Amino acid sequence: MARITGPKDRISRREGVELFGKKKSALLRRETVPGKGIRSRRGRRLSEYGIRLREKQKVKRLYGVLEKQFRRFYEMARRQKGNSGQNLLGLLERRLDNAVFAMGYGSTRPMARQLVVHGHILLNGKKATRPSMLVSAADVISVKAVEGSQNLARGGLELSRSLRSPPSWVAVDDQKLTGNVVALPARDAVPIDINELLVVEACSR
C-alpha cells in the first residue's frame, strides 16, 4: 500500500468520493476540486483520457497501491478467464490488508495495513506481514494473542462497527478476534461506484 502522508480528505475530495473508510467528509460537499481555485467540479470538462485516468486513480487510491503494483494486479487479472475489470477488482479486494479492513480490525485501510506490517495479524495461524498477500476462501484471519495486538484490534473494531458492517464474504467473531473468508468477494463487494471498463481502457493504453 502506498503510504499517504498528506491530508486524506483532500484526496477524497479530488476523486469526489470517500476513499479511506471514514465518515463522509464535509469537504466532499465543497464545489471546488483541490488545486482548481473557484472552478466547479460540476462545470469542469475532462477529456476521454482524463475520465479514464481519474477512474484508474480512484481505484489505486482506494486500495492504496502504487502504479507498478497496480500493473502487476492488472496483468494477473488479464490472464484470468472472464471480465478483466471485475477480475482486477476481485484481486484487489482479496489483498490481506483489505480483508483485515473488511473484518473491521482496522477502521481504515491504512490502519489495517499497519496492523499487518507490524505483525499483529495471523493468516491461518501464521504471522503475515505482507499486505499484498491474497486471501482465499476458507482462510482464517486472526489477531495475535498478545495484549498490545488485541487492544489495537478492539479499538479498530469499536470504531469500524460504528461506521459499517462486515461484507458478506467474511465472517467475524468480535469477541475472539478471529474471522473467516467464507467466499471470494463478488463484484458488488467494492464499496464505491467504479466503472471497471474505464479502468481497463486506461490500463490498455
Give a verbal description of the structure:
With 205 residues, this protein is α+β, with helices and mostly antiparallel strands. It folds into two domains: 8-92 and 193-204, Ribosomal protein S4/S9, N-terminal domain (Ribosomal Protein S4 Delta 41, Chain A, domain 1), CATH 1.10.1050; 95-184, RNA-binding S4 domain (Structural Genomics Hypothetical 15.5 Kd Protein In mrcA-pckA Intergenic Region, Chain A). It has eight helices and five strands. Strands 2-1-3-5-4 form a five-stranded antiparallel β-sheet.
Compact summary:
The chain is 44% helix and 8% strand.
pLDDT under 50 segments (min length 5)? Answer: 37-41
N→C terminal distance: 24 Å
Number of strands: 5
CATH fold annotation of the largest domain: Ribosomal Protein S4 Delta 41, Chain A, domain 1
CATH superfamily of the largest domain: Ribosomal protein S4/S9, N-terminal domain
| SSE run | HHHHHHEEEHEEH
Specify the number of helices. 8
Topology:
Elements: H1 8-15, H2 48-63, H3 67-79, H4 84-93, H5 96-103, H6 109-117, E1 121-123, E2 126-127, E3 140-143, H7 147-163, E4 170-173, E5 178-181, H8 196-204
Antiparallel strand pairs: 1-2, 1-3, 3-5, 4-5
Helix pairs in contact: 2-8, 3-4, 4-8, 5-6
